[in-house]
Amino acid sequence: MSSLFSTGHPSPTSRGALPPKPLPFHMTDPFLDRGVWCFWLTADEQVLQYTNHLNCVLNVSYMTPPFMRKAQNRALVTINPRYDAQEVWLWMYETLETEAHVVELNESWEDAIVGACVYPDEDDQTGDSWD
User: Fold this and answer.
1) Dist CA 77 CA 74 (whole Å)
2) What DSSP assignment string belongs to the chain?
3) CA angle 61, 65, 66 (to 5 degrees)
4) What would the pLDDT profile of 66-85 be if each residue is shown by its tens digit?
5) pLDDT tens readout for residues 14-28
């Protein structure tokens, strides 16, 4: 595996006695298949649907061998040949990694967001929404 495509995930043994947490997604290194670059992506269905709508992706297919059930949340992603495969793979990895990272907000930020999203009661409306 080249250092350019290494994911840098910690090994399960480095966390001590705790079992490893499942990763939100996993991408294999890209490989050339019939003249186009592909990689396997294992993720939630929402992530696979998001990936399918990107311009840099030619196709997302759920290929399974005969007589086997469909692999759960795993798809073969074909990179559009108009784009550089390494750049697409790295961009997708960085984008998914950023989106999968959970940011913990302190209580004051949570309260501010809740306060900003509160809608007025229906009883308080006077019929003119532009007051």
Assistant:
1) 9
2) --STT---PPPGGGGTTSPPPPPSEEEPPPEEETTEEEEEEEE-HHHHHHHHT-TTEEEEE----TTSPPPTTEEEEEEPTTS-HHHHHHHHHHHHHHHH---PPPHHHHHHHHHHTPPPPGGG--S-TT-
3) 120
4) 666 655 788 999 999 999 99
5) 444 554 555 788 999
